[in-house]
Amino acid sequence: MIDLYFWPTPNGLKLKLFLEETGLPHRLHLVDIGKGEQFEPDFLKISPNNRIPALVDQDPPGGGAPLSVFESGAMLLYLAEKTGRFLPADVHGRAQVLQWLFWQVAGLGPMAGQNGHFAVYAPDKVPYAIDRYVRETNRLYGVLDRQLARHAFVAGEEYSIADMACYPWIVPHAPHGQDLDDFPHLQRWFETIKARPATVRAYEGVAAPYAGRGNLSEEERRILFGQTAAAVR
């Protein structure tokens, strides 16, 4: 049994995609990040970076005590290795998937996240910051479009954890100032993933609570964007 600590952000939805694809038994524990539940002491024991998602595997490979994992890329890799699914066993295929998984967690996610922050959530609109991150998001879309011109999926011809990592960050393309018509190969891939039954189930009844809206309360804004080290001590 997997206990998934979750809120419907792009990073949270990556793990929901994996669990829906595999049918791995799991329980969802909602962590309302707008209320600051990610700073609760019990959650910090699982996720010391006070971010969702995080998981606890009650039955880790080899047995032993329950195992907690935080950071969405590490969680996808852990679950792929646990189940033997969505990560090739051969060295070349594995390397391709891991490259694109790390590309997402180091590039697409952070840059698109900053894009959304300055374009949607920041109380003061800073044209330089908005332009910087919209352009960088656009560049990364171009990288992905070029890759998908040569392959059916992000890391090759098979669906993998690299696709699961990227897809939720492409879902908010409009608030991030991107038009998928400009990226035909990315658009083809996006529609393919969107139509998968597991994707439909993962997104069923899910409304990302902050997607595309800047009208956060001052308390939500403080909790989401105003924390210092004092919050985790």
Automatic annotation (TrEMBL):
This is Glutathione S-transferase N-terminal domain-containing protein. It holds the Pfam family GST_N_2. It comes from the Bacteria. CDD domains: GST_C_YfcG_like, GST_N_Ure2p_like. The lineage of its organism: Bacteria, Pseudomonadati, Pseudomonadota, Gammaproteobacteria, Lysobacterales. Residues 1-87 form the GST N-terminal domain. InterPro entries: Glutathione-S-Trfase_C-like, Glutathione-S-Trfase_C_sf, Glutathione_S-Trfase, Glutathione_S-Trfase_N, GST_C, Thioredoxin-like_sf. Residues 90-210 form the GST C-terminal domain.
